[in-house]
Amino acid sequence: MNYATFLLLLTGQLALAQTSRPLVKIISVEAGNNQMDSAFFPINPQSGKPVTLAYNHNYLHFRFINSRNPTQKSFAYKLTGLDYTWVDCTDCSQVQYAHLDGGDYTFLVKTTQSGDVPAQFSFTVEGNLLHKWWFVPTLFLYLLLFAGVIIYFFILFQFRQKLKEQRLIHKEKMASMAELTAGIAHEIQNPLNFVNNFSELGTELTDELKQAVTAGDTEEVLILTDELSESLQKITHHGSRASAIIKGMLEHSRTSTGQKEPANLNTLATDYLQIAYQGFRSRDKAFSCELIIDLAPHVPPVTVVAQDLGRVFLNLFNNAFYTVQQKQKTGQPDYQPTVWLNSHRLTNTIEIRIKDNGTGIPEAVKTKIFQPFFTTKPTGEGTGLGLSLSYDIITKGHGGSLEVNTAPGEFAEFIIVLPIS
Amino acid sequence: MKLVDVAMYLVYIATYGVIVPVGIGLYLVRHLNKPLKIALAGLCLSLVLDLGLLAVNFKITNTFYYLFSGFDLLIMAWLYSSVITHKTFSNVIQWSGIFFIPLIGLDAFFISGLTNNGFSNAVEKFYVMVIAIYYLTQLLLEKIDDDIRRQPLFWISAGIVIANLVGSFDIFSRPVINYSQTIYLQYFMFWSFVTILMFGAYSYAFWLSQRDR
């Protein structure tokens, strides 16, 4: 190859290189968004580093120039990834793209001369957060965890409240059981005294009978035998009475089966009045109270859960005795503690009134007495569940009503109304 | 005032708000029982780290963050293993706490290279939250007759659970920043508020321990 050919070839190569270089130069690129918290910022188009823009920096502004002839302003541009064809513009030197979706883009710009190589700038707009495959499931899991913890503690608190209530109900039951036991112990003492006395009498009669038999006094033997028989009958009678009392106690202590059976409300109320009264007297020997019982005759049997209703009576009588005892302690002259038990037959219902002339119920307290855990008794003396449970037993358990009528400082009267059928 | 300024003020209050429970705790230290003393030690350590970070002018923030995660995890494991009555669980909490420390070290030096403590933070927050929830369950079911509001550790645990539950949203921090700085700043403000509440719970717990004696 001679020297001239080499020069020609070199010139040709240089000319080819000149024509393969873009005539247009991208002089500036700015990115930003239309939100207040982010201004447009410049990006160096010649840095050569991959440009990745955040999802919200999807406003891009390109400025370009014809590097050979700056006055020439006819260009064609295209954003691959968005534009399908070249866009021609005359008398322009900048272009703006807005609201670009996530994806890879290349901005191409060239002069309108045919064969011109376009200048290019490649960039990536990050996808919308919500469009990232992992974002929604992760966020969902997070929210699930958040909600799960809240629900877990809500259920836990409810469960704790239930446990607390159960414990208090158990405590209330135990307290009423203790009162019942005290009353029953007192009640049993009476027939047991009879049993003891008649047993001693029986022993004496037997001794006398032996003597009469030895003496051959037939008439005396017959009289003594009759007396012995009478004594034994009395032992049996009082033994049965004690047995009935114990049976009653066992029924009370047994968990209520909820089975309704016909019961005589007069008898039930009277029994529990006596038990409550004896219970109070066993704890306070000095306590005495006048009991005025006025019951309607011919009260038909009412289908009730006797154990539950007994608990109501016991609770109301205990409250009555407690309040008259408290009033008695104030030392009012001429005060006679009295508790009334009345029953009336109405058209389709039976009404039982339990009244006391104790301290009464203040007006502010009256609206709260049937609320669970409300008590005016000193700490440790009342669970605050007695009246609440009584109210539930009467209203929810038996379809009746429990109301209170009171004058503070004078009296309190609880009125139970139960449907006959 | 710009949103970013409000957010930064709140973050500062939340960060240095630890001074309040630390102050109350130190004042009442003779009334505190063992778990509360451990909690106080944790808060003191946290304050020391915060002040250390301030002293180095926030130059090695990320390294401090790993330390925060590690110490918090150890303190909580120690605290809860001392109050959880179930022996096996107590041991599990103690040993798992120790087991997580090398993991944080692994993340710090070999995985994330002291640049982003996201993983360590997430593990720590999740772990602390789980043991706090376990303890709260034990407290609520075992101390039925006690007034739960008078239990100092109830307040501390409730604060920890809420703060960590909200704080675990941090795993979304990077995508959220990319999406909108405004949203991220608002979340940061909420998180700061919750942290302040947590320190309030600590303070109240220390105060309770003195009143109950």
UniProtKB/TrEMBL annotation, chain A:
Reaction(s) catalysed (UniProt annotation): ATP + protein L-histidine = ADP + protein N-phospho-L-histidine
Top-level EC class as recorded in UniProt: transferase
Matches recorded under PROSITE patterns: HIS_KIN (PS50109)
One Pfam family it belongs to: HATPase_c
Superkingdom in the source lineage: Bacteria
Molecular function GO terms recorded: phosphorelay sensor kinase activity
Record-linked SMART domains: HATPase_c, HisKA
Keywords: Membrane, Phosphoprotein, Signal, Transmembrane, Transmembrane helix
Name of the protein this chain belongs to: histidine kinase
Automatic annotation (TrEMBL), chain B:
Positions of transmembrane segments: 6-29, 38-58, 64-80, 92-114, 126-141, 153-172, 184-207
Top-level taxonomic group: Bacteria
Record keywords: Membrane, Transmembrane, Transmembrane helix
Name of the protein described by the UniProt record: Lysoplasmalogenase
